[in-house]
Design goal:
This protein is an alpha+beta fold and 250 residues long. It is built from nine helices and ten strands. It has two domains: 36 residues, no CATH class; 179 residues, Alpha-Beta Complex (Cathepsin B, Chain A), CATH 3.90.70. The chain is 34% helix and 20% strand. Strands 1, 2, 3, 4, 5, 6, 9 and 10 form an eight-stranded antiparallel β-sheet that branches. The radius of gyration is 27 Å and the shape is elongated.
């Protein structure tokens, strides 16, 4: 009795197809044999499941994100791109959370996110840019990592950075560091060293001691160093594990 050909052996023949005359003739013979089978027309249908799967384009392999670089004094630095929220039009002053998240998504090479305007368009489909729920819905639509927590600590943030993931911190940016006040502001955290956070601030350079802005716009917030001493009191308002943060690890 003839032994049925295994799926692996059948696949091996297809993998060795070189359009040689005898191979083409054999495939035509196989097609005719299938056509004569009961139900053969369904097998040879252009929309048959096997035919559609065979014609699908393979998903491109994700490009790995850059690895963190060690700083000279024991910290890490990630190559997050910088996006300036003041370039986002008349409402750009409200887009700090949007721009800070977008820097992290672009760093992680999330498809379709090349700058903060790409991400802004998605967020606006789900609500206001100041709402965490709108961002959560936007990230879900993008199938991108990211979740908001209100219990981040210095240790948790450093651990994320050590693993190669940036963060977005929510801080109070008005009032003196001894008594920070007013509405919130988001900054992208791209690393740390022995004395502070390595930051991309989408609005400008903060005056961390007195509050407000030392410089605004025109890329002033790129690659800032915000000291632990003057940033953490604006971030950890209710204790060492009370920081608002977007994290992007799985």
């Amino acid at each position: 009795m003839a032994e049925p050909m295994s799926a692996e052996r059948f696949l091996d023949r297809w993998q060795n197809f070189r359009q040689q005359p005898q191979q083409v003739a054999a495939i035509r013979a196989l097609h005719n044999a299938i056509a004569w089978l009961e139900g053969g027309n369904q097998i040879l249908d252009e929309q048959a499941p096997w035919a559609r799967q065979f014609s699908q384009k393979p998903s491109p392999a994700p490009t790995p994100k850059p690895l963190p670089k060690k700083t000279s004094n024991g910290g890490v630095a990630l190559a997050l791109p910088f996006f300036d929220q003041t370039n986002d039009g008349p409402d750009g002053w409200r887009h700090c959370q949007c721009s800070s998240i977008a820097m992290n998504l672009a760093f992680l090479r999330v498809p379709a996110i090349k700058d903060d305007l790409d991400y802004l368009k998605v967020v606006l489909r789900h609500g206001d840019t100041t709402q965490q729920a709108a961002h959560a819905a936007a990230l879900k639509e993008l199938k991108a990592p990211g979740r908001f927590i209100s219990s981040c600590s210095v240790e948790r943030a450093k651990a994320e950075l050590d693993r190669g993931f940036g963060l977005a911190f929510g801080i109070l940016h008005h009032g003196p560091v001894s008594a920070p006040s007013s509405g919130g502001h988001f900054i992208a955290i791209r690393g740390y060293d022995s004395t502070g956070w390595l930051v991309h601030d989408p609005y400008g350079e903060l005056d961390l001691v007195r509050g407000g802005w030392a410089r605004q716009g025109q890329g002033a917030g790129r690659s800032q160093h915000y000291s632990f001493a003057n940033t953490n009191p604006r971030w950890l308002l209710e204790g060492p594990s009370s920081g608002w943060a977007w994290i992007f690890s799985s």
